[in-house]
Amino acid sequence: MHIDEAAPVGRMTQWRQRLSEAWDSDLAYSFRGSPMAMISALILLIVALTAILAPVIAVQNPYDLTQLFLDKAELPPIWVEGGEAPYLLGTDVQGRDVLSAILYGSRISLLIGFASVMASMAIGISVGLICGFAGGHVDNILMRVGDFVLSIPTLLVAILVSALFRELLPVNLRDSFAPLILMASIAITSWVQYARIVRASAMVEARKEYVLAAKILEVRTTRILLTHILPNVMTPVLVTATLNLGLAILAEATLSFLGVGMPVTQPSLGTLIRIGNQYFFSGSWWVVLFPAFQLGLIILAVNLLGDWLRDALNPKLQ
């Protein structure tokens, strides 16, 4: 039986060629020339990896009540007098290791933020493509809906949507569906920006010759939208998504801080800040300080990376 060894070698060569082309691209060159972008990407990579590997790194599972010990409650950080190993950043009033809670909480915050951005992108891109390509009454109706959503404060809409979903669900399912409720609440308030960007770009692309030629050839509308127009409008969408990721994480933290987000049994960074804020003036400053620092670090890194991406993809700055 003859085994063709040239095929795997050929595929490896193609992958190496693609990686080399990506490394030599203008975007990669701009990234290598921006220390701030590299530092921000490194911070996000470390945060993401530690969040994913939380079950391996963390000294306890903060969601497992059997691993919490009240006799270890409110221990200070290990470098402060009274601190104990292995609780590097101390413990909260329930005996929960602060570092472990931060790792697990970061995973929830990143997951909800990323999922809400993806959902709002999907809604916004679909609405924007339909409005930009169809126009007419469809465009007017959908854009007026978007204007109505923008006329109400984003946080208020998210609170109303979150409260509505919680009331519709049975009590025993509210905590389980809390991440999905938060994702839906944030996505419903964030899709309009993507829709407006895609609509404006789609209206320009729809008048170009290649789209008119596709219409003459009777190419299906869905194929024109997905194959021809969509790739040409994705650059500003990706920039907006990167910048909105920080806003989505902050929105989740705000909702959890206000008590309409993640429950105490599954704390995100916002929930940890809310819990720690109650004991800040009693001397347990570490319970609120370290989760707040982690949240601020994530949002700062995302915003700096988004600013670099916006400048790198701006043709006027090339």
Protein described:
With 318 residues, the chain is mainly alpha-helical. It has a domain at 109-317: MetI-like (MetI-like fold), CATH 1.10.3720. Helices cover 72% and strands 0% of the residues. It contains 13 helices and no strands. The protein has helices at residues 6-23, 26-32, 35-52, 54-57, 98-134, 136-151, 154-168, 171-174, 178-205, 209-216, 221-257, 269-277, 286-312. The radius of gyration is 24 Å and the shape is globular. It starts with 5 loop residues before the first helix and ends in a 6-residue tail after the last helix. The model has no long low-confidence stretch (mean pLDDT 80). This is ABC transporter permease.
Tally of alpha and pi helices: 13
CATH C-level label of the domain at 109-317: Mainly Alpha
The fold-level CATH name of the domain at 109-317 is: MetI-like fold
Low-confidence stretches: none
CATH superfamily of the domain at 109-317: MetI-like
Protein name: ABC transporter permease
Organism: Taklimakanibacter albus
List its traits:
318 residues, mainly alpha, MetI-like fold, ABC transporter permease
Write the layout of secondary structure elements.
Blueprint: H1 6-23, H2 26-32, H3 35-52, H4 54-57, H5 98-134, H6 136-151, H7 154-168, H8 171-174, H9 178-205, H10 209-216, H11 221-257, H12 269-277, H13 286-312
Helix pairs in contact: 3-5, 3-13, 5-6, 5-9, 5-11, 5-12, 5-13, 6-9, 7-9, 9-11, 10-11, 11-12, 11-13, 12-13
Protein name: ABC transporter permease
How would you summarize this macromolecular structure in one to three sentences?
By secondary structure, the chain is mostly helical.
